[in-house]
Amino acid sequence: MSTPFYVSPQQAMADRAEYARKGIARGRSVVVLQYTDGIVFVAENPSRSLHKISEIYDRIAFAAVGKYNEFENLRIGGVRYADLRGFTYDRADVTARGLANVYAQTLGTIFSSAAEKPYEVELIVAEVGPAPEDDQIYRLPHDGSIVDEHGSLAVGGNSDQINSYLEQRHRDDMTLAEAVKLGKESLARDNNGGEREVTADQLEVALLDRSRVQQRKFKRVLGSQLRRLLGEDESSGGSGSSESGDDGEESSDGDSEK
């Protein structure tokens, strides 16, 4: 009888982590930046119906890279958690920190289980506060760990090069137009350090805007408004501060994309 092949637990975990990282790196990047009035999300995503960025609750948004079906399941679970907690207790009890803890438990359990493959996803959960110092941004890698972030970050694709680019140029006092332009410029960086063309039609942009009087702070930036912010539609005029298209998503429905 042959001896079963032995793999140490350390090697098994390392192999699972490498498998997940390679899957995440194949996805297009998402950039998150704080600006004067909130938090803006910029993703390279030509699809208009399958979103990488979605609303979870009043002040909370979700972004992800990796396998669409996997992070869409996580998004739906987060919406259900937020709705149930807000209904059972109070809307103010739904926080990004609590949601990040739920996602961390789910991802950690899947990653450490030998019965199934690890999720090939990396998540961002963000909450806008009354003031910039109250904003919360959490990054959740494939293994379920939680990283508290501030200022700017990128996940997926060539995130190392993008993060280096952002660190040199991001400021907390940026306007919305400056933040969106920086997000676009950072996504245009390629693995060789060069730059490629990225247009408004290839971008998905959404934000958590603390200046909105509505309870729900999430809105998408679409069409001519996005082109104005990027300087691609000079003839339209205006500062691009008004809303365009759907100002949010129903908390019980929506999509996300790879």
Automatic annotation (TrEMBL):
GO cellular component terms given for this protein: cytoplasm; proteasome core complex, alpha-subunit complex
Primary site of residence: cytoplasm
Pathway noted in the entry: Protein degradation; proteasomal Pup-dependent pathway
Subcellular location: Cytoplasm
GO biological process: modification-dependent protein catabolic process; proteasomal protein catabolic process
Description of how activity is regulated: The formation of the proteasomal ATPase ARC-20S proteasome complex, likely via the docking of the C-termini of ARC into the intersubunit pockets in the alpha-rings, may trigger opening of the gate for substrate entry. Interconversion between the open-gate and close-gate conformations leads to a dynamic regulation of the 20S proteasome proteolysis activity.
Pfam family, one: Proteasome
Lyase recorded as keyword: no
The keyword Cytoplasm belongs to this UniProt entry's keyword annotation: yes
Keywords: Cytoplasm, Proteasome
Signal peptide (residue range): none
Biased composition (Acidic residues): 244-258
GO MF terms, alphabetically ordered: threonine-type endopeptidase activity
Chain positions covered by the region annotation Disordered: 228-258
Protein function: Component of the proteasome core, a large protease complex with broad specificity involved in protein degradation.
Subunit structure: The 20S proteasome core is composed of 14 alpha and 14 beta subunits that assemble into four stacked heptameric rings, resulting in a barrel-shaped structure. The two inner rings, each composed of seven catalytic beta subunits, are sandwiched by two outer rings, each composed of seven alpha subunits. The catalytic chamber with the active sites is on the inside of the barrel. Has a gated structure, the ends of the cylinder being occluded by the N-termini of the alpha-subunits. Is capped by the proteasome-associated ATPase, ARC.
Family: Belongs to the peptidase T1A family.
UniProt-recorded name of the protein: Proteasome subunit alpha
Gene: prcA
